[in-house]
Amino acid sequence: TQFHCGFNDPAALADWHPRLEYVDEAPMNDSPVLMAKAPANVRRMFRLLNLLPGMKRSTRIVRFRF
Fold first, then answer.
1. What is the chain written as a DSSP string?
2. How far apart (Å, rounded) are the C-alpha atoms in residues 56 and 6?
3. pLDDT higher than threshold 90 for residue 26
4. What CA–CA distance (Å, rounded) separates 36 from 53?
5. pLDDT at residue 1 greater than cutoff 70
6. For 37-59, how does the pLDDT look when each residue is reduced to its tens digit (9 = 90+)?
7. Which residues, 6+ apart, have CB-to-CB distance to 64 below 8 Å?
8. Mean pLDDT of 24-45
9. What is this structure's pTM?
10. Residue 27 in contact with residue 55, Cβ under 8 Å?
């Protein structure tokens, strides 16, 4: 059994609540804050994953505001 959850357009989530506003999104693999805290082997793995188009968009940080 596999669990799949995702959105092709995360901005569409803003339609769920009238005050919810989509701000932006970024690949988690490129987050300077996360990369600064990650061990070297994890940073290398994320750099490799960024080379694969499907993987680069598979993990994203999406920001919203109320």
1. -------S-GGGGGGGSTT-EEEEEEEGGG-HHHHHHS-HHHHHHHHHHTTSHHHHTTSEEEEEE-
2. 14
3. no
4. 23
5. no
6. 899 999 898 888 888 877 777 77
7. 13, 14, 20, 21, 22, 23
8. 86
9. 0.61
10. no
Which residue, chain included where needed, has tokens 């080379």? 51
**What type of residue sits at position 11?**
A
Give residue 13's identity as a one-letter amino acid code: L
CA 24 – CA 10 distance, rounded (Å): 9
For the CA atoms of 31, 16, 58, 47, the dihedral, rounded to the nearest 10 degrees, stands at -10
Query: Which CA distances in Å does 32 have to 11, 36, 46?
Result: 23, 6, 12
Q: How far is CA 32 from the centre of its chain?
A: 13
Give the model's pLDDT for residue 47: 86
Please identify which residue in the block is written with the tokens 């109320």. Answer: 66
